[in-house]
Amino acid sequence: MVAPAQFSAPFNYTNGTLAGQNVMYFFQYANSVTGNLFVFFTVLAFFLVILISSIVMQIRFSGAEGMRFDKSFLIASFSTLGFAILLSQISGLLPVSYFIVLIVLTIFSFIWMALSNE
Predict the structure, then answer these.
(1) DSSP reduced 3-state for 21
(2) What is the pTM of this model?
């Protein structure tokens, strides 16, 4: 009697990475090929999508006169910081300098919103 074979991805190695084991290997591979620019542009795109979505939703619910850019900026920077925390859990994926810049950006946006007169 032949023992059943365990399931494994048909191509465990893709360009020297274990792509069949975890999806994060694709992120690590793309980041290594682009010289750490893949993660930078992923975080930047995430920030811009949240920022533009928040601005559009504020305009939709309260009109153009009720839109506050500082609130949208705080929402975008805080959610991007959360996304960066998730990316920093993968070793070598998010450089510490990017993470520090995001923390400073979040603190700046919080101070900006707290000091606004509206």
Answers:
(1) coil
(2) 0.76
